[in-house]
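Record 1 of the preview.
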Amino acid sequence: MNKRMELRAFGALLALASPLAAQTTNDPFPEPIGDGWAPLVVDYTEFARIPGAGGAAPRMTNITDEPGTRRLFVNDMVGQVTSISYDGRTVTQYVDTNDARWGQRVQSGGQERGLQSFAFHPQFAQQGAPGYGKFYTWVDVVDTAPPADFTPLGGGDTHDTVLLEWTARNPAAATYDGGPPRELFRLQQPYPNHNAGQLAFNPTAAPGSPDFGKLYVGSADGGSGGDPHNMSQNLGSIFGKILRIDPLGTNSRNGKYGIPADNPFLSRGGALPEIYAYGARNPQKFAWDPNNGNFFMTDIGQNTVEELTLVPRGANLGWNVWEGSYRYVGRDGVDARNARGDASVTYPVAEYAQPDPLLLGQSAAVGLAVYRANRVQAIANMVIWGDNPSGEVFAVPADNLPQGGQAPIRRVLFNDGGQARTLLQLIQKATPGATQPDLRLGAGPEGAIFMLNKADGIVRRIGR
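->
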């Protein structure tokens, strides 16, 4: 009996045992992912190889295009940020944020802690502009002695997560030539997991527009499991949120950054003015549609539903009352009754269940990009994201967005000498014995999509 049949048999026993239990499921989508659809098969290129610290494969989680200096940048969670020329031939360590001279020792123990993300100000290469030379890191650190700007509602004090601003003297220099970073704010983390998420500026925002130069910050629910201190739905807590700040401003509570005047909860009593959206669990990645500015997020589920969501300003994303389109019951699953039953909640445009046969017994929706170029026709006008630990890549149309469920989801496979393979299979060719890729996705120049992983150090570009 395969896993899905075992799960269904178990559900049938629950149904006999109790009418209430019959509504609880860990697989609300009975049809497999991609059922009825032919996979989208695309070419790929091994674009660059990133060296890891101490001979280990780099734990890459983010790739960022900096068009002013015509370089891509990739992080390793242990602390390095590496630059890649647009042709992929020149790979240079730009800065080691874990260097003792910066005074911010990176906490990179375990699978989820470390240099989480980084972002370059859109004026990074514009001499004389306020953002000239500035970039930002969102990083877990060892030192918890400095007072935290934000504390959890329970749990311990395992480490801090800090938003740092760095200022290069010459942005075009091969390596960082500035001084120690400036701390903008600090979170006390109650648990070692679910620490932080994406850091990014909206690349579609034009100079002079309200969103230009505003920094979006993903903050997970604090960890443990099930959001035990109910912080995601609490507008007075910074955990389980997407934040939006002006890193060059000074009107925050600590005076080190700014609060944009058009943030949605600015005038609500008891709400943190930094909040752009709330009710997230573990927002590992967000991205904008270059055609229309739509803002998407992938959020990792608890035990049942992984989700891709279109996030409007001020959205309640549901967690921990909802997991995807369903009421969250606990580690046993979700309640199948009254799906999408609260009009005040923003539900996913696409979602899938962790027990699906394509996956490896567990699942996490990660990586995200919207492909609007036409170089790779198979994925043109698609929202692309990935799954861990399976290494599967999925897509849904970016226009006429679906309204939840996994029926619209397409698989994306890679042409390897005439064979259609998953990313994990590609990695296993380069690194025999690899069991999972820990996949991430990101956009580069001319809309190109790049794939990162933590197994072999190879940055792959979709298409030739």
